[in-house]
């Protein structure tokens, strides 16, 4: 796809976002790596380009726009606030990715919109803005809510350590499933070394003693009852048109009281989306939506997919995606916070769809 076509689409989308009141911002392409590493840990290294600057230290090519926009807003911004942007982001390819090269570029264009607001209808406003911008393409809209899953896991009858471990890995479905299976089975006693034996390795003696104590304590914990794993499986696998998902969520909330507040928020959000003229029957609610994205989404998530309606694009990433990231503003605000929600569109994919229409 010629760069000028992508840029033309990006400028058109940018104009729509600016018409919605957003201020245009342009974060640096090279960002301090420490903030991103603090937020995501070493996992981000597998997806981003990191380099050493002799003066500025470890730096990272911009893997997305949200973090630098939030940083700038929490340092200087008033509220409410709206921002938009257009520019390249940089991600490493997965060596096992067999999609066409155009879908796994190291660098691609993003156009985005971020809303910092305490308005309870902010989620619906952002979703409707993206829905209207992409309506001519006939994409499939999908939504979810990470707070629903986070509350469900936090409400399980588990020890604090086990609950924290599951919450930490909720964005990594494979690791999460293995942990849940382990916590649902009787603990296997471990043959731990005598504390008087010689110590070896990189861990210090005090750290190893504490770790042994945690393992011994965990071995005595009763397994999670099958009734809870069944309820969790039912929740995580829930996928249906939004209007049909609500009764299923209400039924699950009766068995899992911890998710009742999240279910109420989802119902209110769906009502607000419907009030903006969007057919809920054409919007998919997927309870696990957002589990494989960047880890700062902690509430509403959404995406617009081409694969369902265009068979030749089955391997495409989302044409657009986004969500709510309130916790990120608390972390980067160093005590201050403001609810925030936003998303991005890939102009290159929009341009390809328009060219083939």
UniProtKB/TrEMBL annotation:
Entries under Pfam families matching the protein: tRNA-synt_His
Record's keyword terms, sorted: Glycosyltransferase, Transferase
UniProt cross-references to InterPro entries, sorted A to Z: aa-tRNA-synth_II/BPL/LPL, HisRS-like_core, HisRS/HisZ
Keyword flag Glycosyltransferase: yes
GO MF annotation, one: glycosyltransferase activity
Domain named Class II Histidinyl-tRNA synthetase (HisRS)-like catalytic core: residues: 7-214, 226-342
NCBIfam families: PRK12295.1-5
Record's protein name: ATP phosphoribosyltransferase regulatory subunit
Organism: Paracoccus nototheniae
Lineage: Bacteria, Pseudomonadati, Pseudomonadota, Alphaproteobacteria, Rhodobacterales
